[in-house]
Amino acid sequence: MSTFTRILAIETSCDETAAAVVENGRTILSNVIASQVELHAQYGGVFPEVASRRHIEVIHTVVKQALEEAHLGLDDVDCIAVTRGPGLVGSLLVGVNMAKGLALARHKPLLGINHIEGHIYSLWLSEESESFAFPLLNLVVSGGHTELYLMADHGRYKHLGGTLDDAAGEAFDKVGRLLGLPFPGGPAIDKVARSGNPNAYKFPRGVMDDSFNFSFSGLKTAVMRQTQQGHQPSLLVNDLAASFQAAVVEALVTKTERAAQTYGVTAVHLAGGVSANSVLRQTMKDTLPMPVRYPKPILCTDNAAMIGAAAHWRFINGKFDALDLDVIPSLQLV
Ligand code: KG4
Ligand code: ZN
Fold first, then answer.
1. What is the architecture, at CATH level 2, of domain 6-122+299-315?
2. Ligand 1 test: best mutation among 142, 249, 281, most atoms within 8 Å of CB?
């Protein structure tokens, strides 16, 4: 029997059509991502019907390419994994139907994976993960989520808190639009903020209470009020971006630090699109006394390798799904 587990993973929950082959939950044999960012930029956000149509157009090519780049055929993989939620229903359906078809045709086990769990496992795609020790604290910060999860073991989570309104990435995207920056707002704000003053404006830091919850809608409104005070020369846009970013980062770091200390974790893991933010990474590292880890930039935003990594731990425990697996657009992790 082969000592290698190879999983073909598919991810289509939002606006990236992605497929990957992952070996033993750690090694990426291929990681193909067809991004729709340019397609949606004209709308200033993800247009669901357009997203699912594009997934249908490219999914076959993306899966084929993932197998080719891994130098494997379908018969060489042990399992088919796919994101079943949370995400856009029409987008999720494209990936799940593709995975079901492949599993049925080749008699392979099928695994439906939670997208958030995928982001958490993006950090395990490294040799270094062999030395990770539990408990770990995961901060998942993406376009749709801002959540703190304590992880006691593989697949064992406790939800400590999350956003009460907008997700951090959503706030970056909305403020980016307010400031006239290109979509998505996160990377654009990260870039212009480098030449801005983070102390130029004092924006609200959200819920500064004993909970592990966040709130970013008041911050977004405060930036909007400021922008309504007339035309902003580009220098002020940089200051607004830097001040907004400083407020988001402070809110995230404060709660994460307290959760990490309360639960005595061995390390803090940042995941999701916003974990690519340069100031967030640096401030977390400078502030927290324990190791702070984050994925390579390509693994921060949506990809299928992370789905394959999460699937590995379910696969070795034989936790398979039936072939009538359905999508769950509002799937919770715990
Ligand atoms: O994880 P992801 O690809 O999608 C979801 O699952 O939601 O995250 C996308 C989000 C977008 O809101 C984008 O603006 C944000 O991640 N993002 C960033 C950065 N890069 C991407 N936010 C702040 N700074 C960045 N460097
Ligand atoms: Zn995501």
1. 2-Layer Sandwich (3.30)
2. 142
Class of domain 134-294: alpha beta
Confidence of residue 1 (pLDDT cuts 50, 70, 90): very low
Q: Which of 309, 245, 310, 307 is nearest to 281 (CA)?
A: 245
Domain with CATH 3.30.420.40 in the chain: 6-122+299-315, 134-294
**Which pLDDT does position 3 carry in this prediction?**
75
- pLDDT tens-digit profile of 281-315? 999 999 999 999 999 999 999 999 999 999 999 99
CA distance 188 to 201: 19
Model confidence over 251-267: pLDDT tens digits?
999 999 999 999 999 99
| Residue nearest ligand 1's atom 22 by CA | 186
The structure tokens 């993960």 sit at 129
**Does any ligand 1 atom lie closer than 6 A to the CB of residue 14?**
yes
Q: How many CB atoms lie within 10 A of CB 38?
A: 8
Ramachandran area for residue 166 (φ above 0: left; ψ -120 to 50: alpha; else beta): beta
Pairing of strands 267-271, 292-293: parallel
220 — phi, psi (to 5°)? -60, -45
Query: Ligand 2 centroid vs 136 CA: distance in angstroms?
Result: 20
Q: What is the CA radius of gyration of the chain?
A: 20
Tokens matching residue 189: 């704000």
Please, is 55 exposed, middle or buried when counting C-beta atoms within 10 Å of its C-beta (0-12, 13-18, 19+)? buried
